[in-house]
Automatic annotation (TrEMBL):
InterPro entries listed in its UniProt record: HupE_UreJ
Organism encoding this protein: Ciceribacter naphthalenivorans
Domain of life of the source: Bacteria
Sorted UniProt keywords: Membrane, Signal, Transmembrane, Transmembrane helix
Protein name as annotated: Urease accessory protein
Amino acid sequence: MFKRLSITAAIFTAAAAPAFAHLDPAEHGSLMAGLSHPLSGADHILAMVAVGLWASQIGGRALLAVPAAFVGTMALGFLFAVSGIEVPFVEPAVLASVIGLGLLVATAARLPVAASAAVVGLFAFFHGHAHGGELGAAGALQFGIGFLVATAALHAAGVGLGIALGRMGPLVTRLLGALTALGGAALVLG
């Protein structure tokens, strides 16, 4: 089962090509635009899969609590954005989340579940605000549901991948974390 899940995660990540990014809500509907939006940028994909990888490293209650904290707090950030509440440093915080989450995975950081949820929640708030700021002509509710579902799927892919890779030992997952952090640094410099 985990082999299939990791293959599915790899296919899911590879299918997230920028050519399909930012579907026009008028043409594809707000739900589809929301579903596609987290798949439209490397920053979102890397951070959201890293959340799942980190949750798999922590294990136990973190498998659900850490991704759930991300999704819930991301929804709050989205509400701030659609309500017109400005938040400074949104894009730098999103990029910092890729580097930070990658480093947490690379070091296999062991924090209490509540602290881990708080860390991802902080990053998630900025991701949610960024999504809300890119709403465009999409209907907020449908778009929001779409990107929350896509985010949860990316987290699930990260958890499944992390569990599958964890059976081979911690090194591969930690390497993915390091590559995520390097990818985040490349995004900052690019």
